[in-house]
Amino acid sequence: MSTTYPGTTIETTALTKGSSRMLFEGIFATGGITLSQVSVMTDLEPYIIQNWVKRGFVSPPQKRVYSREQFARIVIINMLRESLQIERICGLIRVIGGVLDDPLDDLISDDELYHRYVDMVAEDSIRISDPSSVMVAATGACADFEERVPGAGKKLVRILQVMLYAHSAARLRKSAEEILSAL
User: Fold this and answer.
1) Which of 1, 65, 130, 146 is 20 to 30 A from 123 in CA distance terms?
2) CA 51, CA 29: separation in Å to the nearest integer?
């Protein structure tokens, strides 16, 4: 049985700790990726991605090429957009990332946030219905996080919890709709 990386169409046999980092290394081995490549890997229409850039949710590509940071931002938004409004998602990301085009105010980069999220969901022990299980998983995903700003680790734990609940809600909704369609 295969699964996909959250927010993408990229299939894998299993999510494992560090697998998204290796995936990104392969995708970005030659530099950036084009809009059409982002579109294929996220199943998003190009105009949606361009709209997110226009609205300031994603920074503009350089020379028509998207960086790993931009791709991670797009994937995170895509992963959460079925359960949260895009403005709420971007507000969530701003808590960690600060101003869009200023990496110096980031508590953590978008791609590192995504990798920590994938590492967290790769754990089989998370029980979504148990808040303490979710807290343990989010805290574990932040165990080696080095704070540049006091309190950043606690914010990261909370962000990962929100991401897990929102992504899970979207997956549960999809499952319910599939079952309903089969009736």
Assistant:
1) 146
2) 27
Per-residue model confidence as pLDDT tens digits over 91-127: 888 887 665 565 556 788 899 999 999 999 998 789 9
pLDDT over threshold 70, residue 180: yes
3-state secondary structure of 65: strand
Quote the number of domains for the chain: 1
Count H helices and E strands in the chain, helices first.
Answer: 8, 2
Tell whether 63 is covered by a domain.
Answer: yes
Burial class (CB in 10 A: 0-12, 13-18, 19+), 19: middle
Burial (Cβ within 10 Å: 0-12, 13-18, ≥19) of residue 147: middle
Question: CB atoms < 10 A from the CB of 39, how many?
Answer: 19
Range of the domain at 76: 3-175
Residues 44-76: pLDDT tens digits?
A: 999 999 999 999 899 999 999 999 999 999 999
* Look-up of token digits 């392969």: 26
Q: Is residue 183 part of a domain?
A: no
Q: If you ran DSSP here, which 8-state letter would residue 33 be given?
A: B
Question: Which structure tokens are listed for 177?
Answer: 């709709």
